[in-house]
Amino acid sequence: MADILIVDDTVANLQLLSNLLKEEGYKVRPATSGKLALQAVQQVKPDLILLDIKMPEMDGYEVCQILKSTPEHRDIPILFISALTDADDKVKAFKTGGVDYIAKPFQVEEVKARVATHLQLKEYHDHLEEKIKDGLSEIQILNQEMIATQSEVIFTMGEICETRSHETGMHVRRVSEYSYLLAKLAGVAEAELIKQTAPMHDIGKVAIPDSILNKPGPLTNDEWGVMRSHSRLGYQMLDVSDREMFKMAALIALHHHEKWDGSGYPDGLKGEDIPIAGRIVAIADVFDALGNDRCYKKAWPLDKILELLNEDKGKAFEPRLIDLFMDNLDDFIEISVKFSEKA
C-alpha cells in the first residue's frame, strides 16, 4: 500500500483529497503546514507528496527545496497542487524539484490518474535502481574473483620459479609481505598491488639453465651475464598483458636489481628514476635472500644483514626506505618468523 503525504493549510482540501485517495486504497497522512510536513517525512518516508504552495510560515517551494537537498528524501516524487495558475509559478514549481503540477480547483479523475502514474514511475525507478545495485554488486564480486585468480596465478608462478632454484615458496611469500609493509610505511598508494605482484620478481629465472641457476660456487663472468639476463627476460614474459597486475609484475621483474647509485642492472637507472616498486622489492629480496640458505651460501646472521643494508644505504638502496625499514625492524622480523621455512 503506497504511503501518500498531503500538505495543505486548508482543512477542507485535506479532507477532500484524503477521502479521495483512501478510496483508491492508499495510506494517507495529512499535514497542515510545511513544518509538520517535514516532521512527517522524517518519521516515515512517504512514497509520494501532494504539496500546496501558498501556506503561512513555510510555503510549498521551501518545503520542496529542503526535501530535494537531502539525499535520503530527494527521490520522493512531489506533485504541487495549487490555485496559482500563473506560468511563472508553475515553472518555479518544476525548478524546485516538483514532478507535476495540478491546478485548483482540481478534477477528481485527474488527481487519481496523476497520482497513480507517478507512483508507477517511482516503482519502476526503484526497481531499476535495485537492479543496477544488484548488477554492480555482481560485477564487483566477479572483479574480486578475477583479481584473486590473477594473484593465485602470479603467486604460483613465483613459487614454481623458486622451486627450480631449490628454494621454497616461502621466499616469495616473505618478499611479498616485506614489500607490502615497506610500501605502506612509505605511503605508496599501490601497496596492495605491489604485494600481489612481488612474488613474480624472479620469474625470468625459469629461462636460466640449471647449471648456472643452481651452481654451488661463484659464477664466471659469462655465467653472471646469463644470470643477470633474468630481469629483462622476466619483463618480456609479463609485459604481454595489459592487465594492471601484470604491468606491475613486469615492472618489478625488470627493476628489482637496479641500485640507487646507478650501478645496478639491467638499465643502470639511478635514484628516483627507478620505479618505487623496484626500489622496495630490491630491499625485501636482499633482506630475505641473505637471511636464508641458498645453494651458494649459508644464511647470514641478522646483525650482519643489517650492517650490509646500512652500508649500502645511498648506494644500492634508497636511504629513506632503509630508514623506514630500520625504524620498523621488529615488524619485518615478525613477518620472517611467521613465514619461516619451519612455520
Task: Give an overview in words.
- Helix content is 58%, strand content 7%.
- The chain contains 15 helices and five strands.
- The chain has helices at residues 11-23, 34-43, 60-68, 87-95, 108-164, 169-185, 191-197, 210-213, 221-228, 230-238, 244-255, 276-290, 302-311, 319-327, 329-338, and strands at 3-7, 27-31, 48-51, 78-82, 100-103.
- The protein has a five-stranded parallel β-sheet with strand order 2-1-3-4-5, with helices on both faces.
- 31% of the residues are buried.
What key attributes describe this structure?
single chain; 343 residues; alpha/beta; Rossmann fold; Hypothetical protein af1432; 2 domains; 5-stranded parallel sheet; 15 helices; 7% strand; rod-shaped
